[in-house]
Amino acid sequence: FFSSRRRHTRYIGDWSSDVCSSDLDLNVIAYARAAEAGRTYLPKAVFWAQGEQDEGLGTSQAAYVASARALQDDAAAHKLALTGDGSPFPFITYQNASHTQHAPYQPAIPLAHLQLAEEDADWALAVIMYIMDYTAGEHLTANSSRLAGAYYGLALYQWVFGKAKPWHLSPAAPVWGAKSIIIPFDHVVGALAFDTSRVSDPGNYGFTLVDDLGAAIAINTPVIVGNAVQITTATPIPSGSRLRYAWGAAGWAPGRLTGARGCLRDSQGDSIKFAAGGNFPMHKYCPIFEKVKP
User: Fold this and answer.
1) Cα 48 from chain centre
2) 5 pLDDT exceeds 50?
3) Closest by alpha carbon to 91, among 51, 147, 60?
4) Cβ contacts of 22-27, under 8 Å, gap ≥ 24
């Protein structure tokens, strides 16, 4: 874990500028203690849970991604210098979903989290936070904190012990028709489903469509076709239109019943359950995303 205590603000640019040295110093101490005991010490992964303050600051998606990559690179260099081990040093993150609380009310940081997990071999998305319950603004309830930890733990187990990067439910390139969109999904476990029992339906299961100026385009109720979602419209879809999922609107309080959210998931939870959470089925929920028609 990295902590925002001591000299660090809660903005990613500050953290990556000095590599959270107070936290990395703990690795130096742990390495020394292990050596004194005749044992080895090797940090395996970082749990990353940050981004809400950058939303309030107005950090762009590109700036956040650049800072996150710099932080990961510096942390990996620190591990190499300390231990001599040059193996990958994965960062496991969430996708936060509280952007509707911060002007300009756009999901720049959630999209940055998704971009890191999609493009970088050493970043993975453990959990989509719109499935959680919140209290006092952007703070999780105790039960949701435990649930988030279970998802992080599952990702850690899959990566460190299973030796394979854990993959989120990943929206692929859509097939655009004149009045239709088909969005295939990769890394589906079991079957796709629209599940309104955990996450309430904000309308069309979280899918929206806007033109290049941001004006809404009416869509029919999405349907699942195999490992894809099909969306149709009554009017032609112009070039530059944007298909969005779990986008939300200004002022929506975060959470599975009120916030920026969607109902699409796979069926991983049919076989993987969080026992301490009442056998909670740990399905993979679709991340917040946007796709643009060429």
Assistant:
1) 10
2) no
3) 51
4) 24/75, 24/78, 27/78, 27/79, 27/82
